UniProtKB/TrEMBL annotation:
Pfam families: PMI_typeI_C, PMI_typeI_cat, PMI_typeI_hel. Binds 1 zinc ion per subunit. One of its GO terms (cellular component) is cytosol. This is Mannose-6-phosphate isomerase. Transmembrane segments: none annotated. Its EC number is 5.3.1.8. Isomerase that catalyzes the interconversion of fructose-6-P and mannose-6-P and has a critical role in the supply of D-mannose derivatives required for many eukaryotic glycosylation reactions.
Length: 417
């Protein structure tokens, strides 16, 4: 095991300065780090992705980055992981601090990723899929998956500007296929595609009318919830004139409490809106975007690839399970082989705790608490505090001597094949 200094991404949508959980963790882990007051601190990348390979914080180790270390000592991944993922760490672990909405997007499956990468390498930088999971650290808001049809029909009825973009014919068709899942999925695709392909002048005019109407209704003290008014105005203030503002009528609005998670499989439409989260994903950077963004938009690919399966917001919350062998561990184990996340919460009464070995390299992030970590293979003890990031090799157990009065709260990413 050894500590890491991790890459920070200063994307424009990130929370600024000390408001950012990313910035707070960086300062916690390294008191000499400098956080600039006006600068966004959007993402902390904990892993070996070439765009943000973590630095090893131990000058007795010859390799300077985690990627180099893994290339020299691939056995640290664990034999199954090493063979399955061709000597690469299969996941990227992150913290996100979101201040303004990220684009409406979906991630391709392996097959589509390979095809997009071959055709448009400038927009799709690798050939891997990118399933991902977000676990809320603070109250976390996002859009995820298509709403139940009844809710979409409700908005088509109450929001004439939205109906104008979808068109009466497609809206009536959606009403008519209630109860037939296959047909519903086809018509939902038709409705969404119609809206996304609207001429710019048409949708900008409708959006301006909608924003004006909702603003006036709000000022008159009327309830604008039937038009999803608050969220609409917030997104419009961030991305004026963007078609993505209308996506709130198609997609579930999610509010996660700390510790709650959502899993975003291939082709699942989503957008993060506000808050701080832990994120874990397959090691890829492939994103197909279609709104709430100044970046490259690929509407046709997105509309073709999406999973048009309506479901309730509550069904999108990904359950965590108690680890059978450790009462302090909750498992977030998604239906993909690339990663699993564990939340380790050690109560204040426990002062000695062993992080159990797993047959996979893992990365541990300390959210709260202080401890000294020892392991048989390590060159020396490591001091853990809020913001410490630790790389642990496969089958290595780590003994913690906990010194804080309030216990420990940590997240661990690994690959349980």
């Amino acid at each position: 095991m050894f500590p890491l200094t991790c890459a920070v991404q200063n994307y424009a949508w990130g929370k600024v300065g000390q408001d950012s959980e990313v910035a707070k963790l960086v300062i916690g882990g390294d008191p000499l780090a400098v956080v600039e007051a006006g600068r966004p601190y959007a993402e902390l990348w904990m892993g070996a992705h070439p765009k943000g390979d973590a630095q090893i914080k131990d000058n007795r180790i010859a390799q300077t980055t985690l990627g180099q270390w893994i290339a020299h000592f691939p056995a640290c991944l664990g034999s199954k992981v090493k063979d399955t993922f061709h000597g690469q760490l299969p996941f990227l672990f992150k913290v996100l601090s979101v201040n303004t909405a990220l684009s409406i997007q979906a991630h391709p499956n392996r097959e589509l990723a390979a095809r997009l990468h071959a055709q448009f390498p400038e927009h799709y930088p690798d050939n891997n899929h990118k399933p991902e999971m977000a676990i809320a650290l603070t109250c976390f808001q996002g859009l995820c998956g298509f709403r139940p049809v009844e809710e979409i029909l409700g908005f088509l009825k109450c929001v004439p500007e939205f109906r104008a973009l979808v068109g009466n014919e497609a809206a009536d068709e959606l009403q008519g296929c209630m109860g037939n899942a296959v047909q519903t999925s086809q018509v939902l695709k038709k409705c969404f595609t119609r809206m996304m392909n609207c001429e710019k002048k048409v949708f900008v005019d409708q959006l301006n009318m909608l924003v004006k109407r909702v603003t006036e209704e709000g000022a008159a003290g009327k309830d604008t919830s039937s038009s999803n008014g608050d969220l609409l105005l917030r997104l419009h203030s961030q991305y004026p004139g963007d078609i993505g503002c209308f996506s709130i009528y198609f997609l579930n609005y999610m509010v996660l409490d700390p510790g709650q998670a959502m899993f975003l499989g291939a082709n699942e439409p989503h957008a993060y809106i506000y808050g701080d989260c832990i994120e874990c994903m397959a090691c890829s950077d492939n994103t197909v975007r279609a709104g709430l963004t100044p970046k490259y938009i690929d509407v046709n690919t997105l509309c073709e690839m999406l999973s048009y399966t309506p479901a309730s917001a509550s069904s999108k919350i990904f359950p965590c399970e108690q680890d059978a062998s450790d009462p302090f561990v909750s498992l977030y184990d998604p239906p993909v082989p690339d990663f699993t996340v564990m939340r380790i919460q050690v109560p204040a009464s426990v002062k000695q705790y062993t992080v159990a070995p797993v047959d996979s390299a893992s990365i541990i992030l300390v959210i709260e608490g202080d401890a000294t970590a020892t392991s048989a293979a390590a060159l020396s003890d490591v001091t853990l505090r809020r913001g410490t990031v630790l790389f642990v090799s496969a089958n290595e157990s780590v003994a913690l001597h906990i010194t804080s009065q309030s216990g420990m709260n940590m997240f661990r990413a690994c690959c349980l094949l």
